[in-house]
Amino acid sequence: MPEGHTLHRLARQHQRRYANRQVAVSSPQGRFATSAEIVDGRVLERAEAHGKHLFHHYGPDLVVHIHLGLYGKFSDVKHPVAEPRGLVRLRMVGPTHYADLRGPTACELITDHEAEAIHARLGEDPLRKDADPDRAWARISRSRAPLATLLMDQKVIAGVGNVYRAEALFRHGLDPQLPGKALGRKQWDELWLDLVDLLQDGVRQGKIETLRPEHDPTLLKPADRGALCARKVYAYRRTGEPCIVCGTPIAHDKHLARNLFWCPTCQPAVARTERQ
DNA sequence: TGAGTATGTTCAG
DNA sequence: TGAACCTACTCAT
User: Fold this and answer.
1) What's the angle, vertex CA A28, arms to CA A24 and CA A29, rounded to 5?
2) Is A221 considered catalytic here?
3) A255 CA to C1 C1', in Å?
4) Which of A89, A252, A256, A264 has the CB geometry, 3.0–4.6 Å to A239, for a possible disulfide?
5) CATH number of A133-262: 1.10.8.50, 3.90.20.10, 1.10.260.40, 1.10.1790.10?
6) CATH classification of A4-121 is 1.10.10.10, yes or no?
7) Could you say which residues 15-34 of protein chain A have a Cβ atom less than 7 A away from any atom in strand C?
8) Of A255, A234, A3, which Cα lies nearest the Cα of A147?
9) Could you check: is the Cβ of residue A227 within 7 Å of any atom of nucleic acid strand C?
10) What is the residue-level pLDDT of chain A in tens, covering all 276 positions?
11) CA-to-C1' distance for A48 and C1, Å?
12) How far apart are the C-alpha atoms of A105 and A167, rounded to whole Å?
């Protein structure tokens, strides 16, 4: 599930297992071969993530930039190193583990300047220490675009994807169509803090679970579990299923070619939320 | 076994 | 707005 939490989890794992050591870098599939040769045998100085982007820094002007896109995946396997299976775009072998990258949208060798340009165009990342929610608020509070658009706009908030969008809006009772400028400052502060919490939890768990304790079936007595589903989310991909909180069927629509899920009762349309 | 679908982004038209 | 990228999973046949 490559939303921001996945990339930050990978960055931490790569930092722990590969950073400050020489790594063998190759491209069994061939598409990254020329660049892999350049960094092969160098010391990986640092791995970091910003939103859904991953950066491996190999010293001056040598940065491997990775974006998983929709399908990309990084494996992490303990030695011994096995023959590559399938299309492995990048293989990075460290002292104890090796990581295979398959199906990324981007895997490229870039300069420090190009890496900075990517950072510069990305918005505030709830998982980064340098995130400034005021900057995101400045954009949201003067935008007529709906929250459904703004939350997924990587230039505004980096790292939130379709799952976190649906879940964060649900948890705050916000209508996905509410224009950014109709959101109150207090509502934004609460939403931002919750995104930080949710994404941090995603990094820890390696998966997205957003149910509050009172709705988490694994924390309830069997008799109280009722119709609560096994997947621990409120709205995402639960079209037509009863809302865990109020029982209203979860609604679904396409929004800018992406699936949007919400509860029409818990996230009432603009009129009520605008006054808050 | 094959069709359909997906958590994302970029580019052409 | 739709196609392309090109992987893994679920479901129907």
Assistant:
1) 140
2) no
3) 12
4) A252
5) 1.10.8.50
6) no
7) 31
8) A255
9) no
10) 689 999 999 999 999 999 999 999 999 988 899 999 999 999 999 999 999 999 999 999 999 999 999 889 999 999 999 988 888 999 999 999 999 999 999 999 999 999 999 999 999 999 999 999 999 999 999 999 999 999 999 999 999 999 999 999 999 999 999 999 999 999 999 999 999 999 999 999 999 999 988 887 666 555 545 444 557 899 999 998 899 999 999 999 888 889 999 999 999 987 544 434
11) 34
12) 25
